Amino acid sequence: SAKHSGKNSASFYSPDMQSEITQRVELERDLRAAVEFNEFELYYQPQVNHQNKVTGLEALIRWHHPIKGLVPPNDFIHSAENNGLIIPIGDWVLRKACEQLSVWANNQSTETLTISVNVSYRQFRQPGFIFSVSSIIERYSFNPARLKIELTETMLVDDMERTVACMNKLKQYGVQLSLDDFGTGYSSLQYLKLLPLNQLKIDRSFVSELETEVNDRSIVKTIILMSRTLGIEVIAEGVETEHQRSYLIKHGCSLFQGFHFGKPMPLSELSAWLENYSNEHNK
Ligand code: C2E
Ligand code: MG
Ligand code: MG
Ligand code: MG
User: Where is the EAL domain (predicted)?
Assistant: First the structure.
């Protein structure tokens, strides 16, 4: 019977669980080294408006693992959240982005560009977060409105009072706030009204099947309408086709991010890309 089945097994852990634990331990060990030896890099993905003007970039972290090569964030951010390494990693991302903004502030062709930075739950909830943002923006000279902090719905709903207080503090510093992956969390109008947001980002999952899914079309139209009603800027992520772009424009969304325009790229490729893009579109 089930009651006795455990008796003869040699170990509580199955081989699968064992290897999962080993992998987790190795990932954590490697991540620690990555923080120490600075193995991270920021890639930048363009954000483009309806007139084909690049308005900003999203900073997306990459990890150059000494053996595995380039590791995408979905393979390590979750772990970094669990073991606390997200705090130094997140600080590094913010610093790097602000440093870049201060470089761009000195050049006419880049001075208006914004950088969006992803912030995770544990980072946002950490007591020192507000202070670390304020000291970073103080250290580099640029207009803080060029910095957009991306938060997600799920990290905002518990302890709304504190969330709103933190967000208001950030807005006092002049930073902009964006709600990432919008539509995949709670999406309640009630809290949307309470949160001091500058931007909503329509999640990629609604954009990717605009062509075939009637429901996704309704959701996208509703989000656009809602953000306009609330006076919040709206951007669509994961735009991959001209069809998606024109549908979005038709329904009042005029900011886009996605492979249709450009993939995330290292800084070393960015200035050539920007120049080429503006030449292509301003003929
Ligand atoms: P996200 O913030 O929603 O970022 C968008 C993700 O969608 C990026 O993946 C980007 O490469 C991908 N993407 C953009 N356009 C398209 C498209 O047209 N088609 C498809 N199929 N994908 C597209 P990436 O860079 O792998 O990042 C994944 C997630 O990792 C991000 O989702 C974000 O939640 C997290 N992340 C990235 N960088 C950081 C960071 O510095 N800190 C934290 N806490 N999280 C980060
Ligand atoms: Mg994001
Ligand atoms: Mg997103
Ligand atoms: Mg996403």
Answer: 24-278
Query: Could you say which ligand is closest to the alpha carbon of residue 208?
Result: 1
For the CA of 201, the nearest ligand: 3
pLDDT along the chain (283 residues), means of 10: 48 78 93 98 98 98 97 97 96 98 96 97 94 96 97 88 94 97 80 91 95 92 93 97 97 97 98 96 80
Atom number in ligand 1 closest to CA 260: 18
For ligand 1, atom 20, the nearest C-alpha belongs to 238
Does residue 91 line the site of ligand 1, with CB under 6 A?
Answer: no
For residues 199 and 176, the answer to whether their CB atoms sit within 8 Å is yes
Q: Which pTM was predicted?
A: 0.94
Please name the residue that has the structure tokens 């990693």: 89
**Do the Cβ atoms of 255 and 47 come closer than 8 Å?**
yes
Q: Is 259 in the pocket of ligand 1 (CB under 6 A)?
A: yes
